[in-house]
Amino acid sequence: MSLQKKSRRVMEGVREAHDGMTAVPRKKFKKPNGYILDIEEIAQGVQSGSRLYLGKAITLLESSNPEHKKDGQELLNQLLPHTGNSLRLGITGVPGAGKSTFIETFGEMLTSLGHRVAVLAIDPSSSLTGGSILGDKTRMEELARNPKAFIRPSPTAGTLGGVHKKTRETMLLCEAAGYDIILVETVGVGQSETLVRSMVDMFMLLVLTGAGDELQGMKKGILELADAIIVHKADGENARLAKKTVSEYKQMMHFLQPATESWKTRSVAASSIDNTGITEVWEMVQEFDETVKESGYWKKRRQEQTKEWFRSMITDELHSRFFDDGNRREVVGLLEKQVLSDKLTVAQAIVKLFE
């Protein structure tokens, strides 16, 4: 046997002896192709700020495999002490308001100031095929290439309930990876806005010029969620009209309950094309952060959000366990037929189901 082979054998024997004395069983994440990745390795990779490992961690948490779900929660538990240290901003707006353009411009400015920015986009999965758009990286090309930024679409898998779990957990992973500003983008004005409001510190609404026309397609409830109203695309011929729209929104907000205690909802004009008003938006966000922290409401909101998350997860788990039972699914099917054939009222069917 050559000296090189002998040396290798000796070193392998030393490693095995050392591992036998000191090694602690480490959880592995087995991928479909058979490749095994150490959970602690993923955790360390996330904490090092690696976008590659952050992506792997999110994929693990999003997996529907029961074993992967278990491993994902163990990973999240390891990283929890390193979370909660970011400023979470929700951004919504009517279709055509330029949310992606604004986020890219805003994100580029923040990274130039030394911040690390994560963008989580609530992506509407098809209720028929389960497929999703996932087009955010193509709509934010510059920001996607920025080493200080991370963009991740969060497919809802056809249900908004998925927003609660996946987006919240992804947000925690991003915080553990050192991203100090997290932007959560929603697809438009609807139920998803209420869910996103429940997981961010500040909620911003992008609108277009002409407040009167804008309100025709906007529910009052959406305005009541907003901490800031950004009149976007305030450039060219729209610049003058944007100022008027800002004033109109300021007047409207006098008649609405503030979305956050100790903070009065502001409105500002901005243009991502001319890069105007973006700095003012950031100054407003910083002022909001300082105000709510000084008042003590920041901590209160975070605790309320965690409690709401906990309770929503109870509902999700009850629903999942209820329908995972094959016999119960069969009973539900039979009762549905009786309801549809008018043999039972819906209320009677429910009573029978829970007997």
UniProtKB/TrEMBL annotation:
Record keyword RNA-binding present: no
SUPFAM superfamilies found in the cross-reference section: P-loop containing nucleoside triphosphate hydrolases (SSF52540)
Keywords from the UniProt entry: Kinase, Transferase
Pfam families: MeaB
InterPro entries per record: GTPase_ArgK, P-loop_NTPase
Record GO cellular component, one term: cytoplasm
GO MF annotation: an example: GTP binding
Family per similarity comment: Belongs to the SIMIBI class G3E GTPase family. ArgK/MeaB subfamily.
Listed name of the protein: ATPase/protein kinase
